[in-house]
């Protein structure tokens, strides 16, 4: 192969490698990360308040987990699923993005709200959910095992 022909071939191979380097990776979806395994289980103590009408408490649950295992002191109806969700995706309890920092569809899912407070490994967590727009609906759906069901507020 002549030197003049070698440059385009090498350049094309380099470009293909650069493009493919962004592909693959882990099984995580957008915004998700897998927690590194540790020798110690994450301890979770959460109180979950649901307001189906957006104002009055319609349900209050306690969730206690050791890793992905629900503890008997939980009164949450989907405790096993909720603990498994938190073990796989602890970022679900990260604070919601500030208003105006993400684009959301202007669809209304209902008046329901939920508040989660407590501790994860001794660190305070506080996370609110609502159905005011597409971002809120998506966050609620992602946290569904924690929030028990998608309420309509009726």
From TrEMBL:
Gene3D superfamilies with a match to the protein in the record: Subtilisin inhibitor-like (3.30.350.10)
Record-linked SUPFAM superfamilies: Subtilisin inhibitor (SSF55399)
Protein origin, superkingdom: Bacteria
Keywords assigned: Signal
Signal among keywords: yes
TM stretches of this protein: none
Signal sequence region: 1-26
Protein name from the UniProt record: Subtilisin inhibitor domain-containing protein
Organism: Paeniglutamicibacter kerguelensis
Lineage start: Bacteria, Bacillati, Actinomycetota, Actinomycetes, Micrococcales
């Amino acid at each position: 192969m002549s030197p003049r022909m070698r440059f385009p071939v090498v350049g094309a191979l380099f470009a293909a490698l650069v493009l493919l380097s962004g592909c693959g990776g882990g099984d995580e979806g957008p915004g998700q990360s897998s927690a590194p395994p540790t020798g110690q289980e994450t301890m979770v103590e959460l109180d979950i308040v649901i307001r189906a009408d957006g104002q009055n408490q319609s349900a209050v649950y306690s969730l206690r987990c050791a890793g992905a295992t629900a503890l008997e002191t939980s009164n949450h109806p989907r405790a096993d699923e909720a603990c498994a969700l938190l073990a796989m995706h602890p970022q679900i309890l990260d604070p919601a993005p500030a208003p105006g920092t993400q684009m959301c569809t202007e669809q209304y899912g209902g008046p329901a709200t939920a508040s989660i407070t407590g501790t994860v490994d001794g660190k305070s967590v506080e996370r609110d959910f609502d159905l005011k727009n597409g971002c809120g609906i998506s966050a609620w759906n992602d946290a569904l095992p924690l929030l028990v069901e998608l309420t309509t507020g009726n």
